[in-house]
Amino acid sequence: MGRWEPNATDRLVVAALELFETNGYENTTVIGIAERAGLTKSTFFRHFQDKREVLFGRSSLADVLAEGIAKAPADAEPLEAVACALELLAQDVFTPERRDFIARRQAVVATHPELREREALKGLGLIAAMTGALERRGLPALTARVTAELGALALELAYTRWGSASRDFTEVAREALDEVRSAAPAR
Amino acid sequence: MGRWEPNATDRLVVAALELFETNGYENTTVIGIAERAGLTKSTFFRHFQDKREVLFGRSSLADVLAEGIAKAPADAEPLEAVACALELLAQDVFTPERRDFIARRQAVVATHPELREREALKGLGLIAAMTGALERRGLPALTARVTAELGALALELAYTRWGSASRDFTEVAREALDEVRSAAPAR
Q1: Assigned domain for B49 exists
Q2: Does the residue B168 lie in any domain?
Q3: What is the pLDDT of residues A12-49, one digit of tens each?
Q4: Successive 10-residue mean pLDDT values, chain A, 187 residues
Q5: Are residues A106 and A15 located together in one domain of the fold?
Q6: In this structure, what CATH number is given to the domain that contains residue A49?
Q7: CATH number, position A89
Q8: What is the pLDDT of residue B165?
Q9: Domain residue limits at A87
Q10: Which of A5, A54, B14, B83 could form a disulfide linkage to A16, CB 3.0–4.6 angstroms apart?
């Protein structure tokens, strides 16, 4: 067992991001990341499964989204419950201080198919988490799923736009949710 | 270069499916699949990239869906264009003769995380293909994307139900599309 390393996770994430930016994802090794962070390879593997996971393992968006949906007022419409979840995300994860970091992370993820693939799979995990949380509010399974799909699409739009905007995530997210709602087919 | 092997693709797919069913995905090797099909390992790799791809590389659902959307009447509503695509799928791919095979394939895919992951990624490819085809009909990008997401959800439902039903895919798909439409939020 290694000794306790203060902020090891943060240091590893920042080191990885810098190396991916400078040398490319392909040319970066786990040892290189650990060294840059002043840590050992085994410390790396106590925090992350592999090189790819270092950009994905950190924040549990799925848990925050599920919590936000659960906490929405009992009489909130399905998409309104999703809006509450996106607000909680703005408070807990997508804070103004993190915007630059997130924009850099986005740019790196876009550079490599393996990273884009992992991002896509994480997106499916978010849909599953939101679907579950909406079902626990008593919604029929299919309504929950459709709402979660639309919510995930709004989240994706907001996430992309927020990285290059200078507005609060809540505002960008609300706008995206309205757009997605208007784009949905008439019943 | 190997000699021409009649129906090599089909033989490999059937052999793989049988071995996955009998011995499990994990315990099946490419050599084992090739041998069971009466072919060589190098013939296998001329047809498929890896063991996983053998259940996914065959039919190009994305192309059929895009074609069906392109061929829909010019005045068709967005989701109606998707319905046309699902009909073409019923004619070209999900034919009654293939139902048993598809049901077995579904059961095997469900057994292993690697296969479920590949299936999920293929699903995202279908959404992208439908989004593109809908945009080429002149729809705004977001309307195209939302419609494609709903269409993919209907396809997923229909695909799952059809495997265990004794009805035409067109009928199951149309029903699923109606359900998804009703589950979409009011604007």
Answers
A1: yes
A2: yes
A3: 999 999 999 999 999 999 999 999 999 999 999 999 98
A4: 70 94 94 96 92 80 95 96 96 90 90 88 93 97 96 95 87 96 84
A5: no
A6: 1.10.10.60
A7: 1.10.357.10
A8: 75
A9: 61-183
A10: A54
Least CA distance to A117: which residue of chain B?
Answer: B121
- B103 to chain A, minimum CA–CA distance in Å? 22
- Residue of A120, A153, A157 lying closest to B124 (CB–CB): A120
Identify which of A77, A121, A181 has the shortest CB distance to residue B117. Answer: A121
Asked if the structure places residue B68 within a domain, the reply is yes
Mutate to test the interface with B, among A49, A117, A124, A142 (most CBs of B within 10 A): A142
- Short-list A138, A155, A2, A166, CA closest to A74: A138
Tell me whether residue B164 is exposed, middle or buried, using C-beta atoms within 10 angstroms of its C-beta: 0 to 12, 13 to 18, 19 or more: exposed
Same domain as B110, residue B30: no
DSSP annotation of B1 reads: -
Nearest chain A residue to B179 by CA distance is A142
Q: Report the C-alpha gap between A46 and A49 in whole angstroms.
A: 8
The mean pLDDT value of chain A amounts to 91
Condensed to tens digits (0 to 9), the pLDDT of residues A41-61 reads 999 999 998 898 888 865 689
- A140 contacts on B by Cβ (under 8 Å): 183
Nearest CB neighbour to B145, from listed A79, A146, A153: A153
First and final C-alpha spacing in chain A: 59
Same domain, B29 and B75: no
Spatial CA neighbour of B45 closest among B12, B3, B6: B12
> How far apart (Å, rounded) are the C-alpha atoms in residues A46 and A161?
34
Say yes or no: B18 and B47 in one domain: yes
Q: How many domains does chain B have?
A: 2
Same domain, yes or no, for B33 and B122? no
Question: Tens of pLDDT along B99-126?
Answer: 888 889 999 999 988 898 889 888 999 9
Q: Which residues of chain B have pLDDT under 50?
A: 1-2
- Note whether ipTM > 0.85 here: no
